[in-house]
Amino acid sequence: MTIKRYAVIMNPYGGNGRASAVWEQVAPLFANSGVETVVYATENQGHGRVLAQTLDPLTHDAICIVGGDGTVHEVANGLLAREDQARFDLGFIPAGTGNTLHDHLGLRDAEQAAKTILRGMTRAIDVVRLTTQGEPVYCVNIVGWGAISDIASLAERFRPLGKLRYSAATLCQICRPRLRKAKLTLDGMMSQDEFLLVIACNTKKTGTGMMIAPRAEIDDGKIDVVVLRRASRWQMSQLFRAIFDGSHLSLPFVEYHQVRSFGIDSETCDTLNLDGELTGTTPFSAEVLPRVLNVFA
Ligand SMILES: Nc1ncnc2c1ncn2[C@@H]1O[C@H](COP(=O)(O)OP(=O)(O)OP(=O)(O)O)[C@@H](O)[C@H]1O
User: Which residues form the DAGKc domain (predicted)?
Assistant: First the structure.
């Protein structure tokens, strides 16, 4: 019998530092199933990307990520930037705060996620390739702009609040909404306006349990784009109340599109929210790469 050897990329910082304990909890399941594991703890921001870009494909059969959406983002970017085009199957063990990709794939806890990896069944998922400042960035989960970036920035400062940090940041943002002028292009159709937010979603949820894109499927070759142009504080609070069950789609001021490509060119150079990470800026263009990552699910 050939012994499988999986790399475990673990972020000891995310999820308020619980990743090591999460890994300790599930490591025996791998050992008992005859899967050898080599743990690589990330030492700083961006290290997950470097690890995935340089991992030896001759000595590792797959990558398990122990962390949240930010760590998945880094590993996916490292993998898709590899010069040798080597592709590893990816396994996800939730140990971050939001864990929205995990939630979308039905991976509710570490033990269930480990068992899913060990079962060995994979499916292919879409990724968004975004070009910002002439460089490609790959997104698995969301591309956000406007209030979505402002919320991520506040949520980072609220990290000690744990899972509550996204909701708390969203509430603060509702109290001081900021309009931005931009050109928004959806499948080649451009509209110029003022916007509060644009969020393009590959997964149904974002933050902690906000069902922002209830029709999103991770392998349909499309990205679901939610657009909010001008809205009063009252309308914003309506949106916030409805967003947890997806009923905001019936609100007349909320637009919902399913597209293959999109882009934003804003009047100011704004930071983007890419899979929860504040990185990249406008202007950018983006397209869906259908089913380019193989994941255990
Ligand atoms: N050793 C480290 N020290 C500091 N930051 C790190 C380290 N390793 C990784 N990071 C950064 O930690 C950030 C958060 O990681 P991650 O997304 O896994 O957790 P989270 O933010 O709590 O979860 P989620 O994104 O699901 O809400 C990422 O930006 C990543 O680059």
Answer: 1-134
